[in-house]
């Protein structure tokens, strides 16, 4: 059985992150099993999302408006800096944070030819100056590019007298120490707290 | 961040088989990262596939025409009966089978209220009569509904003097016997061959 339209649909699904041939095929069959109306709604929601969602001019997060609600509503006294829009979703679970976010769209990574000029660092500096920000919380990923970016930005912001902090690193809640990796354990030991 | 269009897209992805919230979210971000043109092509391929692909009137497999190429081309001297269209894809890997397929669209399963009338059994009987089929190979899944359906159809086809066979069951090639399940091992022992 070779069906051109099915083949194209499978190829389309393969362009999604982490989807191989078998999964794409499964999704394509899933689409064929839906009602015609549901398929149209699905397709429309895709085009709609792509058309409507852009990046907020202030924070760089996904937004349907030029400046997103959060940037309009909250003060930029505290800015939480993350790598990607999806990290904002993770950080939004925090109940007691009421500052704004700043999405860098990447981290400094020489291996991927990402220099400080390729990510939204100058926009961050501009925001800090404009809003007289008191604290910048670096919530980039706890890996080499994330750490590098955090240290780079901390150095850069020193002249502005803003406090730059970093998410604490150590063992995660609920971890079995037996399975914790060496780097994490070393970090946790280094940064141990008084009780 | 609450974006209506993103939310709708995530919901749409969740309607695909085996996709939960996190995966749907990941796919939605994947879509937002594509170019506008790619998203339109993706959406169009979905609508296209759903519009063009129907079931072949003869074999019940997916087809863009009323009767699929294989049913037009091959003789129905041998009919291989499978449960779902996706099983045809699996069986098509066989190099030395040149009969036609027949898709039942399900198997007899009292737990899911699937009776013989709910699946394409009478279409199979009609085909066997019309084409004077010599052999019907039951390739339904090797589980209780699949076996039940195979035995049911074998009984039903007896008056027509057609040979009804069933895919051999036993241990799969490359299996570690240590991990083979009891039922499979029992079946393999029962149906053991002379060397």
Describe the structure.
2 copies of one chain form a homodimer. Chain A has 8 helices and 6 strands; from the N terminus they run αααββαβαβαβαβα. By secondary structure, chain A is an alpha/beta fold. The first copy, chain A, has a 4-stranded parallel sheet with strand order 4-3-5-6. In chain A, strands 1-2 form a two-stranded antiparallel ribbon. In chain A, helix 7 links the parallel strand 5 (135-138) and strand 6 (163-166). The radius of gyration of chain A is 21 Å and the shape is globular. The mean pLDDT of chain A is 91. At the A-B interface, helix 1, helix 2, helix 3, strand 2 and helix 5 of A face helix 1, helix 2, helix 3, strand 2 and helix 5 of B.
Helix content of chain A: 40-55%
Number of strands of chain A: 6
Strand order of the largest sheet of chain A: 4-3-5-6
Gross geometry of chain A = globular
The multimeric state of the shown protein is homodimer
Percentage of residues in strands of chain A: 5-15%
Q: Whole-number radius of gyration of chain A?
A: 21 Å
Low-confidence stretches of chain A: none
- Derived structural class of chain A: alpha/beta
């Amino acid at each position: 059985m070779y069906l051109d339209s099915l083949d194209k649909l499978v190829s389309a699904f393969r362009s999604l992150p982490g989807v191989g041939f078998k999964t794409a095929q499964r999704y394509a069959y899933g689409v064929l099993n839906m009602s015609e109306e549901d398929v149209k709604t699905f397709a429309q929601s895709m085009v709609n999302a792509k058309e409507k969602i852009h990046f907020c001019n202030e924070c760089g997060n996904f937004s349907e408006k030029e400046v997103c609600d959060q940037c309009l509503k909250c003060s930029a006294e505290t800015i939480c800096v993350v790598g990607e829009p999806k990290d904002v979703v993770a950080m939004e679970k925090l109940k007691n944070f009421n500052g704004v976010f700043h999405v860098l769209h990447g981290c400094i990574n020489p291996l991927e030819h990402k220099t400080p000029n390729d990510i939204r660092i100058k926009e961050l500096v501009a925001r800090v100056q404009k809003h007289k920000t008191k604290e910048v919380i670096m919530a980039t990923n706890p890996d080499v590019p994330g750490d590098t970016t955090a240290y780079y930005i901390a150095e850069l912001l020193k002249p502005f007298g803003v406090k730059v902090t970093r998410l604490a690193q150590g063992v995660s809640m609920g971890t079995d120490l037996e399975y914790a990796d060496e780097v994490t354990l070393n970090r946790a030991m280094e940064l141990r707290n008084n009780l």
